[in-house]
């Protein structure tokens, strides 16, 4: 690569190569900066820093473009389903009929949670936060299957294939069990059903009566999980890569990603959006107070479901999900006053200079809760559903880290601004 960039430090020029990605993104390769100059770059939150090369997802935040392995999210939303897109992001290609069957068989064969593992739930109060339970129980998969999903899987791809299918299938089942546990309901066994039908069965069936989802419901659930499959180097995916870079196994890395996703600025936003819309509805107001509070700049008052660390345009997923809301509600013969409130809030914010000047648009979380609610999923389970949807993307990124023979442990530097050197003082001399 040509040395197209140079950095002048203390009067001396230091040339650095420019990397150009397959979509034309440019990066200055400064892997040798500290060795050459003794300097590091400071980039709080890594907004200007590429931590890796990746072939899974391409995001163009300025133009609102999202593609998984080259396929536009709009086309996957229209033609694909969650498990097919999961295969695509993990293995790089849409599955052939034979690959689809092998993958589906692995998912089915690994959908149950062993009785011994089910006992983990006994340690959680019914009102425990669902994401705290999810990360704990997914972490315990590493205890139960510690020979699996280690970092040397490239010697035995079956091991990875099995671990990946186990993670996708069992995290779905664990999510449903968390729902049942929080309501004091008995756990159910998975059936020989398609992925989303099984999720709805595991959540909503009764011992005496199976829940049989209508096609519109499973289609909507497939769409919403598909829209969450992967999203480049977001906070939780970067966390999975960070943990995986130490050689930690897949399940441990996924548990770390779940913890990162639980934050209200990340995956927890879908729950926060619904609580915001419900509050506007209950107060019979137009949401102006939320918009005005959000303009105060405090992180705790932000307009949830708005803004994005990368998109400076509409989040394409918000467009697709926003359009699907009307279709799903109509097909289910339901209406939801919160959807009208969401539309009005979006229109009001998009006319407000504070949001326009900062290029703040609805993101994936702004409308997703409307669909989850229409499917009968309670608000405190929304982020668990996000985690079920994001699991294939996390697995694909973990695989890139674990299978990289030239990979290095992630170890960012810092600028130390603490107290400079001083000598120890005995307690008798401390004032
Ligand atoms: C997800 O990264 C991903 O890809 C994440 C995700 C994925 O699929 O993995 O897309 C999923 O996490 C979506 C985001 C869900 N979070 C929310 O909806 C919470 C509300 N949004 C914000 O907290 C915020 O927009 C973030 C956290 C998403 C991004 O935060 P940044 O990168 O700090 O925002 P920024 O630097 O672009 O902010 C620029 C300005 C700041 O104001 P000034 O300092 O310039 O005056 O915009 C303001 C921010 O205060 N701002 C907001 C705002 N978001 C940014 N002000 C009010 N309401 C908001 N929502």
Spell out the key features of this protein.
431 residues, mainly alpha, Citrate Synthase, domain 1, Cytochrome p450-Terp, domain 2, 3 domains, two-stranded antiparallel ribbon, 18 helices, 6% strand, binds s-citryldethia Coenzyme A
Layout of secondary structure:
Blueprint: E1 5-9, E2 12-16, E3 18-20, E4 26-28, H1 33-37, E5 57-60, E6 65-68, E7 71-72, H2 73-79, H3 82-91, H4 97-109, H5 115-118, H6 130-144, H7 157-182, H8 195-204, H9 215-226, H10 235-244, H11 250-261, H12 269-282, H13 288-294, H14 316-331, H15 337-350, H16 353-357, H17 364-374, H18 382-402
Antiparallel strand pairs: 1-2, 3-4, 5-6, 6-7
Helix pairs in contact: 3-9, 3-18, 4-7, 6-7, 6-11, 7-8, 7-18, 9-14, 10-11, 10-18, 11-18, 12-15, 12-17, 14-17
Residues 231, 234, 265-266, 269, 294, 297, 302-310, 358, 360, 363-365 line the site of s-citryldethia Coenzyme A.
Structural features, described:
The chain has 431 residues and is mainly alpha-helical. It folds into 3 domains: 4-65, Rubrerythrin, domain 2; 72-266 and 387-403, Citrate Synthase, domain 1 (Orthogonal Bundle); 269-374, Cytochrome p450-Terp, domain 2, CATH 1.10.230. 49% of the residues lie in helices and 6% in strands. It is built from 18 helices and 7 strands. The chain has helices at 33-37, 73-79, 82-91, 97-109, 115-118, 130-144, 157-182, 195-204, 215-226, 235-244, 250-261, 269-282, 288-294, 316-331, 337-350, 353-357, 364-374, 382-402; strands spanning 5-9, 12-16, 18-20, 26-28, 57-60, 65-68, 71-72. The chain has a 3-stranded antiparallel β-sheet with strand order 5-6-7. Strands 1-2 form a two-stranded antiparallel ribbon. The protein has a two-stranded antiparallel sheet with strand order 3-4. Strand 6 and strand 7 (71-72) form a beta hairpin. The protein starts with a strand and ends in a 29-residue tail after the last helix. The structure holds s-citryldethia Coenzyme A. The site of s-citryldethia Coenzyme A has 21 residues, from helix 17.
